[in-house]
Amino acid sequence: MTYSIFRRLIGAIICAASLVTYTSVSAEEAYTLTIKDHRFEPAQLSIKAETPVTLIVKNLDASPEEFESKPLRIEKIIPANSEANFTIRALKAGRYKFVGEFHEDSAKGELIAE
Q1: Does residue 98 contact residue 88 with C-beta atoms inside 8 Å?
Q2: What domains does the chain contain, in order, with CATH numbers?
Q3: Over the stretch 11-21, which tens digit does the pLDDT of each residue have?
Q4: Global pTM value
Q5: Which of 54, 47, 83 is nearest to 67 (CA)?
Q6: Residue 23: what pLDDT?
Q7: Average pLDDT, stretch 32-61?
Q8: Three-state secondary-structure class, residue 48
Q9: Where are the beta strands (DSSP E) in 1-114?
Q10: What is the mean pLDDT of residues 40-65?
């Protein structure tokens, strides 16, 4: 009976350790952009370089917008009054432009990885 309890305890410790490892590896920093009046806020968003991040884009307008960034390899339509989440790979330091393709004259911005 003591051996059985010991095995369960060791199993529980291994499971707990793997959960801690999993959450620490998959944890990413999240950054939020909003689209309002066909403009991005903020128009320049600084993120950590060399670190994967989550980008949340909230469309507060009453019309859809297409978030597009060729350097980030993202192109997605975000319906009116909704949001989309993107996982951004670890980027080298630099500037990465994006646009709202449906209102490209006003919806412009860039991620600054530093």
Answers
A1: no
A2: 28-113 (2.60.40.420)
A3: 566 655 554 44
A4: 0.73
A5: 83
A6: 40
A7: 97
A8: coil
A9: 29-36, 39-41, 44-47, 53-59, 65-69, 74-78, 82-88, 94-100, 108-113
A10: 97
